[in-house]
Each structure stands twice: as C-alpha cells, then as structure tokens.
Amino acid sequence: MRHGSIPGVHGRVRPLRLLGDPVLHAPCEEVTEFGPELAALVEDLFATMYAAHGVGLAANQIGEPLRVFVYDCPDDEDVRHLGHVVNPRLVEAGGVELRGPEGCLSLPGLEAGTERYDEAVVEGFTADGERVRVRGTGFFARCLQHECDHLEGGVYADRLTGWRRRRVLRQAAKAPWARRETAPRPEAV
Ligand SMILES: [Zn+2]
C-alpha cells in the first residue's frame, strides 16, 4: 500500500470460501504477474477481511489460488501490523511454542487452542514487486504462520490432534455454514 492510501477502500467484498471448499485444501500458485490485477486482488482481500472483522486473509479464502495474503493484526504488545505479502516464504519460526486460541474466517464462529511459534519471519514481495521482510511476535507471529499455512492448502484444524481436532471438526460439521451433501431441509422444499 502506498503511504496515505487506505487499504481496501477500492476493493470489492468477495464471498468467503469455507472449510471443505477444494480451493482451501490445495497449495496456491506463485504469482508471476505484478500488475493491476494483483493490486486489485490485494484491495479485494483487504475489503473482504475488514468486512468480516478478520486480522488476516489469504487469497484462496476468496477463491483465488494465488500466493498472496493481507493482514491488519496486533501483536501481544498491541502494536498494529498492516500489510500484504506476495509469494511469502516463512523463513524463520522459533521461540517457544505456545498454544493459543485461533480462529479463521473460513471456519466462522469456531476457535481452538492451536500450537504456534512465538516468533516468525516472512519474506516475499509487495504487489509492486519490491522485496519485503515481515517479522512478528506473539499473536502477529501466529497470524503469519496461519496465513502461510493457507497458501500451502492448510487450515488450523489440520494442526490439531486428539480431542481438540475432533471437537472442532464436529462443530464444523454441525455449523450452519457446513457443506452438506444431503437434500434441502424440508422447510426449503
Ligand atoms: Zn484462516
């Protein structure tokens, strides 16, 4: 984002893809064209993230299988981090591993204690093709790891084990937004 512009103001709020949608469960492709379409995608990501009150959003969550994510996320010291990364690579993840509450706009309303490293460094590019390096700690480090997972085709539920995993998958299956193969409900017929 250029200095002075408000991210997302030119963007379009797009429908969120939800758990079970194939685009969320496959690795995204590298961005090779740094042009106006990419800038528009970043704007749509910001607009959609803000509309959904999220702190981060990956491109496949709006159905675009490209390696891009945006964030507007506080860390544990309440410092705000705002930006986007194209073709991000998680180059460092370290410090202590902490289990903390984690949610996702693709599993709306759900949350589970998920283990993440307390420090993370992501390298990549801006939509203008400039190199960028983003370092996060605490909740922002969690966000960076979460978004990088999305671009690999992962969601936080994939990182859970045991009862935590069973519980969140059970809740997801019962959620109003769950993808169902069954016939429409009687009142809808
Ligand atoms: Zn997510």
Automatic annotation (TrEMBL):
Its cofactor is Fe(2+). Its EC number is 3.5.1.88. The active site is at residue 147. It is an enzyme of class 3 (hydrolase). SUPFAM superfamilies: Peptide deformylase (SSF56420). Keywords: Hydrolase, Iron, Metal-binding, Protein biosynthesis. Binds 1 Fe(2+) ion. GO terms for molecular function: metal ion binding; peptide deformylase activity. Removes the formyl group from the N-terminal Met of newly synthesized proteins. Requires at least a dipeptide for an efficient rate of reaction. N-terminal L-methionine is a prerequisite for activity but the enzyme has broad specificity at other positions. Belongs to the polypeptide deformylase family. This is Peptide deformylase. It comes from Streptomyces tagetis.
